[in-house]
Amino acid sequence: MGRSVSGEPGIQRKQLEHLSYSALNDLLSCGKKLELNRLVPGVPKKASMWLAGGLAVHAVTEEFDRCQAEGRWFDPASCWQTSFGEAIDRLKEQDPDVSKWRQKESMTDWMKLGPELCVAYFKWRKETGWAIWRTPDGELAVELDTSGKLADCPIEIKQYVDRVFLLPTGQPFLVDLKTGSRQPENSLQFGTYRAGIEARYGTVVPQGAPFMNRKGRLGRVHELGIYTPDYMGSVFAKADQQIKQGLLVASPGGHCFFCDVSAACYATGGPLAAQFDRDHPANHVPF
């Protein structure tokens, strides 16, 4: 058994190197998921076919937009095959047995579905005719890295923004691609990106929306006025303090099916909990 960061006997834990929207979302939905995913070394992660498909769709649509902007030839079929194969290989490194991956659609299904989701985005891009925003230093806002510090938060916020477009009015507009069927439940992801863009470039992006690839259109538009760098810096600072204090509580529910570290979670009866979860009775330190 290892030692904790405080030096007491127990499960070994790492210091968090950075925060992100996904880390914040994990903290708010299930602190145990954040702990096992990001703070405990060596926790096995279950792969999923939907993650492989989502990674490939993002890669193909990114290449499409870059080719369009740079006047390069784009071969969608070849790009999909390469991107999906690379995503499968990447996830096999953490979970080699593909037959045991979590899936709603099989690999065969994704070979048909994935290109359809990409084509839905291509058609939408053509229909809207929206230009992709460029930063003040000329960088195309495709998978845009806006990582950095926000006010009052001592830890870096990592973030990569799928797209920032320019509306016909000249207003910048955030878009995040979603290959699943559910829309975001709140504005927090778009607000995090909005704060990062303003902190980095001084540009305020007042609205954002998901692009729902399965429907071929934008989802609900989110108003982002409250998500200033100061406000989001305060939110992340509080999250950082909560994590450092170890106040990470499991919240079991239907979402556990989608959790890649549930096998190490005591609250879900994970078979590896005794090895990795400090909540397991075997890891309780006696007085």
Structural description of this entry:
By secondary structure, this protein is α+β, with helices and mostly antiparallel strands. The protein has three domains: 1-41 and 250-287, no CATH class; 49-121, no CATH class; 132-236, Alpha-Beta Complex (Lambda Exonuclease, Chain A), CATH 3.90.320.10. It is 39% helix and 12% strand. The protein is built from eight helices and nine strands. Strands 2, 3, 5, 6, 7, 8 and 9 form a seven-stranded mixed β-sheet that branches. A two-stranded parallel ribbon has the order 1-4. Strand 7 (207-212) and strand 8 form a beta hairpin. Helix 3 (49-70) runs parallel beside helix 5 (107-128). The longest helix is centred in the first third of the chain and has 22 residues, at 49-70. The chain is globular, with a radius of gyration of 20 Å. The protein starts with 18 loop residues before the first strand and ends in an 11-residue tail after the last helix. The relative contact order is 0.16. Residues 1-9 have low confidence and may be disordered.
